[in-house]
From TrEMBL, chain A:
This is Molybdate-transporting ATPase. Keywords: ATP-binding, Nucleotide-binding. One of its GO terms (molecular function) is ATP binding. Pfam families: ABC_tran. InterPro entries: AAA+_ATPase (IPR003593), ABC_transporter-like_ATP-bd (IPR003439), Molybdenum_import_ModC (IPR050334), P-loop_NTPase (IPR027417). The keyword RNA-binding does not apply. Residues 1-206 form the ABC transporter domain.
From TrEMBL, chain B:
This is Molybdenum transport system permease. It is a multi-pass membrane protein. The chain crosses the membrane at residues 12-36, 48-69, 89-110, 139-157, 200-219. Belongs to the binding-protein-dependent transport system permease family. CysTW subfamily. PANTHER family: MOLYBDENUM TRANSPORT SYSTEM PERMEASE PROTEIN MODB. Part of the binding-protein-dependent transport system for molybdenum; probably responsible for the translocation of the substrate across the membrane. GO terms for molecular function: molybdate ion transmembrane transporter activity. It is found in: Cell inner membrane; Cell membrane. Pfam families: BPD_transp_1. Its main location: membrane. One of its GO terms (cellular component) is plasma membrane.
Length: 206, 232
């Protein structure tokens, strides 16, 4: 049984994006130039975009299968999605953002708020609002929010984009820690070969 | 100080406006949400229908209400038979007229705030395990709150000032449908009624200004809560 068993075609205005991926590695990178549709593929896996056809299974669980009419709702897919634009809720504090999905964590919680805040180095930010945060802090909180939701797998959409080198290294270490600590299946979108080499067991080009 | 009759007018005005706004708010929100988010055939028609009271002469709106909700109107008869609910010549008629006149302003205010919400935040809530209703309750609704607040103030001010539709549909009955504008109008018809006009007009100004001040205070309190993040 593969960790990732994905074969989909996604339709976007004016083009079709196809991804075929069978991987036993728990961290897989999706690479390719910007604008090729990497985010659309992640949206399809998260259930935010319905593929034209195909099948999506992660860790043996079928999330979408056109042939048999399976199409789980986004809230049923158990994914922790770290969006490229973070999408923190502006009306909530950092702590409320982090714990937003806690009530939906499935089974035993992956981590606690305190442990997660410690791991990501964001304990001092809990009372703040998202707009009072720097880019690197925002990204780390988005990662923490996805982890605290108790996901079955993580989708990371260019988590290092538009960060300076110091913060980039900080987030890379965080992702490595998550990989080694929680053994969560991870799909990692990036167009930086160096990151991909360092993090992923396998890479597919779109 | 106000005379007992004047107090009655003020109290009735407040009752009519508060009931009108409270009853019409859920409808205004639903219409605003549909108009902001959904695309369907007949949408232009719905939009036009909602805005009709804004562009029609209020007397015409009142007459249309009389035709449909009056004792012989189809809706009026139905409601009377089913719930014993009478509108014309009754304070509930004044409230209905105020609600209909306030609706377009409220829909506009709420719609703007819903359109300003990034739907990708709702998608984010869904990936965090929230169903559509929970995402609405925990993300959409709080982010639309400033629009709802603006709608309440605008709607209240509009209801307090409602004249044409009310007098046409619910008539000018002391203690039943004689709200502030109708009271002022009536006093103006009476020789020597100027002092009453002045007092009622001052109450009108106070109520409208009061609504503005309260909304400003609420808005600032909300903004201050958000600013706390910067200070810490």
């Amino acid at each position: 049984m593969s960790v990732f068993d994905i074969d989909i075609t996604v339709k976007r205005p004016g083009r079709r994006i196809a991804l075929s991926l069978q991987a036993d590695e728990s961290v897989v990178a999706i690479t390719g130039p910007s604008g090729i549709g990497k985010t659309s593929v992640l949206d399809a896996i998260a259930g935010l975009l319905r593929p034209l056809e195909g099948r999506i299974a992660v860790a043996g669980r079928v999330l979408f299968d056109r042939a048999s009419g399976i199409d789980l709702k986004p809230e049923e897919r158990g994914c922790g999605y770290v969006f490229q634009d973070s999408r923190l809720f502006p009306h909530l504090t950092v702590e409320q953002n982090l714990t937003f999905g806690l009530r939906h964590a499935e089974g035993e919680a992956l981590t606690t708020l305190a442990e997660c805040a410690d791991l990501l180095g964001i304990a001092h930010l809990l009372a703040r609002r998202p707009r009072a945060l720097s880019g690197g802090e925002t990204r780390r909180i988005a990662i923490g929010r996805a982890l605290l939701r108790g996901p079955r797998f993580l989708l990371l959409d260019e988590p290092l984009a538009s960060l300076d080198d110091d913060r980039r290294e900080g987030i890379l270490q965080v992702i490595e820690r998550i990989r080694d600590r929680f053994a969560l299946p991870m799909l990692y979108v990036s167009h930086n070969p160096e990151e991909v080499r360092r993090l992923a067991g396998k890479a597919v080009a779109l | 100080m106000l005379s007992p009759t004047e107090w009655q007018i003020v109290a009735l005005s407040l009752k009519v406006s508060v009931v009108a706004i409270a009853c019409v708010l859920p409808l205004a929100f639903a219409l605003a949400w549909v108009l902001a988010r959904k695309r369907f055939p007949g949408m232009l028609l719905l939009d036009a229908l909602v805005h009709l009271p804004l562009v029609l002469p209020p007397v015409v709106t009142g007459w249309l209400l009389l035709l449909s909700f009056g004792p012989r109107g189809p809706v009026g008869r139905l409601l009377n038979d089913a719930f014993g609910l009478a509108f014309s010549f009754h304070w509930t008629g004044a409230a209905l007229a105020a609600a209909v006149m306030a609706l377009p302003l409220m829909v506009r205010a709420i719609r703007l705030s819903i359109e300003a919400i990034d739907t990708r935040l709702e998608s984010a809530a869904r990936t965090l395990g929230a169903g559509p209703w929970e995402a609405f309750r925990r993300v959409t609704l709080p982010l639309a709150a400033p629009g709802v607040l603006a709608a309440l103030v605008l709607g209240f001010a509009r209801s307090i000032g409602e004249f044409g539709a009310t007098i046409t549909f619910a008539a000018n009955i002391p203690g039943e449908t004689r709200t502030l504008p109708l009271g002022i109008y009536t006093a103006l018809q009476v020789p020597g009624g100027e002092t009453q006009v002045t007092r009622l007009a001052l109450v009108s100004v106070a109520l409208s200004l009061g609504a503005l001040v309260v909304s400003e205070w609420l808005a600032r309190r909300g903004a201050a809560g958000e600013r706390k993040g910067h200070v810490l």
